[in-house]
Design brief:
The protein has 310 residues and is an alpha+beta fold. 16% of the residues lie in helices and 29% in strands. The strands form three sheets. Strands 8-11-12-15-14-13 form a six-stranded antiparallel barrel. A hairpin with a 3-residue loop joins strand 11 (228-237) and strand 12 (241-245).
Length: 310
């Protein structure tokens, strides 16, 4: 998975959620997270430590930051953390996963950061604005409005695990320079077919934690909060999913907890095409990244009101 340093606690999650994160270092994977196969999604994890490298050039890839209530008083949010990954798909639209924007306490607020090291920024902001999660979030990110697919969670054949954060384009442009990701054409992956997809170069990006590390207290997932990238290879194409292999012996890296909602690119015609978003995978983050296709009629119908599609 992409390596990065971070602290976070996993908040209670829906049994079908995928690679999603919230506050303080992940020290164990809950039973709910283990069940995150194909139905809905947990927020996802980070890029593995093996075969992964920092991705400062992937300026369109960002982190989803949230502030929320932890003491039954939503008027005064008392928690802040980065929780998922995502991608700018135009000047004001950040694409992520529905499991990253749903099932939060009342009063949750979402922000987007395109900083390379979001965790370091949050750490510095915590010292500068102690006890003020909103100020800490604003120090590293721009606030936006979440739009979650109205039919999420759907069936495993298509869970509708897709969401966007609408931002103020001027505020984003005042802080970061980036070129929005290129979305796929309608049914582009079907048109290419498995044989051509297998010969295509793929890579995943995100802010998630690393693969499982064994220790005296059980498995931990270190890292997180730094934008990383890693090569992956095509495994299988389903109606709503692209399955990508992230096994180390083949030279792959992969995604893990905190990478949910982050991009998976295929190099098609010399261009990086944002084919799918990270949703879930195997619990220790060693084998498979299960990603949600963006070229299907369902995904395109959701995105149409927010962005111009190819």
């Amino acid at each position: 998975m992409l390596a990065a340093s971070h602290r976070r606690n996993i908040r209670p999650t829906h049994p079908t959620k995928g690679f999603f994160l919230t506050a303080v270092r992940v020290t164990a994977i809950t039973a709910a997270a283990c069940a995150a196969v194909l139905a809905a999604a947990l927020p996802s994890s980070a890029i593995n430590s093996y075969n992964a490298t920092p991705a400062p050039e992937r300026t369109e890839v960002g982190a989803l930051v949230a502030t929320w209530d932890n003491d039954d008083n939503p008027a005064t949010p008392d928690r802040v953390d980065w929780v998922c990954s995502g991608t700018m798909i135009d000047a004001k639209t950040f694409l992520t996963a529905a499991h990253c924007t749903s099932d939060w306490p009342a009063g949750v607020r979402f922000y987007v950061s395109l900083d390379q090291d979001v965790q370091a920024g949050l750490d510095a902001a915590a010292k500068m604005y102690p006890g003020d999660p909103a100020a800490q979030a604003n120090a590293v990110a721009v606030e936006g409005t979440a739009h979650t697919h109205p039919d999420y969670p759907g069936p495993s054949s298509d869970p509708h695990d897709i969401a966007v954060i609408e931002l103020d384009a001027a505020k984003v442009a005042s802080r970061w320079s980036f070129t929005p990701a290129t979305l796929p054409a309608a049914n582009q992956l079907d048109a290419l077919g498995p044989q051509q997809l297998n010969s295509t170069d793929w890579f995943v990006a995100g802010y998630g934690t690393q693969e499982a590390a064994n220790g005296p207290g059980g498995q931990t997932h270190p890292g997180g909060g730094v934008r990383m990238k890693a090569p992956v290879t095509f495994d299988a194409l389903n109606d709503a999913w692209v399955r990508l292999a992230m096994t180390a012996p083949q030279g792959n890296g992969g995604a893990c907890y905190g990478d949910s909602g982050g991009p998976n690119f295929a190099v098609i015609g010399g261009r990086n095409i944002l084919t799918s978003t990270t949703i879930t995978g195997d619990t220790p983050c060693y084998a498979t990244n299960v990603t949600y296709r963006l070229d299907t009629p369902g995904a395109r119908a959701f995105l149409t009101p927010f962005v111009k599609l190819p």
